[in-house]
Amino acid sequence: MTRRSTHGRLAVVLGTTVALVAAIGPALAWHYYRQGWRDQHRHYPPRPNGYSQIVNTFGQPCNGNANSNALQWRAADNGVWYTVRFHRKLGGDASSNLNNDVYGHIQNEHLSPYVRHGIYGYNCRLIDGSRSYSTHAWGIAVDVSSAEEYLGKCHSTTNRYHDQIWRNHGWIWGLSWCDPMHFQYATGY
User: Fold this and answer.
1) What is the tens place of the pLDDT at every residue in 4-32?
2) Do residues 90 and 156 both lie within one domain?
3) Is the domain of 131 the same as that of 174?
4) SS3 state of residue 43
């Protein structure tokens, strides 16, 4: 009889503790919102489709606006801060897209542990094995967790946790062409 009473009391205590943690936990959880972040959705440029629209929206590849914004982004696995350079129209005073809205959602939704080392943006270069410029040359592409989500990998182990945030803000994920590190603000290219 004593055993049943002890187990019954233990179950009540555990049940009460779980309920208390469930009720208080979200109230005590850290949120980026508490530090002043707000999802703004301000002045997003139209998302271009194809080379001509990319040039019409963002100018020629490797132009001065392509790397005029910078975002400091810390990789969760090694603690290194990466400087991600990107186009003027996707952040800063011109827009709230990348450096506020995408980055802010990832922080606020506690998804930063899924951002691993190798975070890169602007790079004036061609697509590997091609004569066409990469979307990185316009500053409209970001590679996230590139060491783990390498080119040629046709599934995702980390970026899948935050890919919907990118898509909700107009970005296309490169997983469909086996480039799970790659997010770009353009289609048809």
Assistant:
1) 444 444 444 444 444 433 444 444 456 77
2) yes
3) yes
4) coil
